[in-house]
Amino acid sequence: MENLDRNAPTSSLAESKRELDSKNQRIADIMNRVRSAYYKTKNDEQLEVHLRRIERGIKDGSEPGHILIISGEPGAGKSEIVKHGLKLLTTLQDYDDEYGERMRPTLYARAPEACSMVDVNREFLELYGYEGNVTGSPTTIGHKTRRTMRNFATKLVVIDDFQHVFDAPKKMDPRIILHTLKNSLQDVMWPLYFVVVGLPDIENLVDYDPHKEMERRTDRFVVENPNFADDGEYIAWIVKDVIENRAGLTLSKDQPFELIARLMHAARDRIGLILTLIYYAIEDALETGSNEVSTQNWVEAYARLAKCGDNDDENVFCVDNWRSIIQMVDRDSNLGPVVGGKSSTKKGRK
């Protein structure tokens, strides 16, 4: 676009283009505050037990490495609970050595979509600062990765979205995946510990070990979803805390009947999707200039998440028979079409 003010400094114009207007900056600030809140679930305490075992094992150093397999349904909040748990491991945080070099005892990475273990190793090297595509045979790249991990004092490797390793176009034999991890656990020079996180697909990884040696070096942890009977009151508290204390808004008197039950049903009882719906409702209220979250904001939030437009018949926050609206969650944590319903081509306010 042509510079309309030829006398204005280029840097000032560039800076102004990066700034939001006051309304949108306010929304951005509030939403950052909202999303920065972390709400513990019944999974946190149990996961910490497993992570502490790994921390003690690394500190002791008398045994080979270990694998913790963390699985859960899409939208269950696996990534957030793991990242929060890792912050508790004080002996495995980054530090500067005596030469001022940054050491990384824990390396967290996400497996790229449809990747191989070679692609995962390349992802590791990129996180360590290697620029460009790392070339070489799988063995060469693997050796380079392990040397780099020693150089950075990495002992715990966390691979999120691990199901992607099984989704490669040329489907990799699970035995090869397990063998790769096993070699790293047994490395005499620098044994590693692994936490792999993903969908239920990954739960039976160690079953592919023909010698059954990995069973005793592996723990499994399944992230459980909340349910209305046991957790409805806690979810209600989260809704109130996020909206009132984090966003600075209020809940209007106009709320959907059985709000919390609807919210949990709409999110298929996945804490990650529950929070997303709350965030969307807050953002919708802010965008419309309201200082309270009302039924309409919940309607718009669900329409945004479920992609149902203004088809009120398929919106959990609109209809009386909302329990009959069932949308499955796909592998990417997206809500699919209503089971037995018809997709709407109309678009709502969003």
Question: Can I get a quick summary?
Answer:
This protein has 350 residues and is α/β, with parallel strands linked by helices. The chain is built from eleven helices and eleven strands.
Order of helices and strands: HHHEHEEEHHEHEEHEHHEHEE
The first-to-last residue Cα distance is 28 Å
The fraction of residues assigned to DSSP E strands is 5-15%
In terms of quaternary structure, the protein is single chain
Portion of residues within helices: 40-55%
Q: How large is the count of helical segments?
A: 11
What is the spatial order of strands in the main beta sheet? 4-5-6-1-7
Question: Could you describe the largest sheet, including whether it forms a barrel?
Answer: 5 strands, parallel
Give structural notes:
This protein is an alpha/beta fold and 350 residues long. Helix 7 links the parallel strand 5 and strand 6. It is elongated and about 65 Å long. It has eleven helices and eleven strands. The N terminus and C terminus are likely disordered. Helices cover 41% and strands 12% of the residues.
Summarize the helices and strands and which ones pair or pack.
Blueprint: H1 10-17, H2 22-35, H3 42-60, E1 67-71, H4 78-86, E2 95-96, E3 102-103, E4 106-110, H5 117-127, H6 138-151, E5 156-160, H7 174-185, E6 193-198, E7 218-222, H8 228-246, E8 250-251, H9 259-266, H10 271-287, E9 292-293, H11 295-306, E10 327-329, E11 335-338
Parallel strand pairs: 1-6, 1-7, 4-5, 5-6, 8-9
Antiparallel strand pairs: 2-3, 10-11
Helix pairs in contact: 2-10, 3-4, 5-6, 10-11
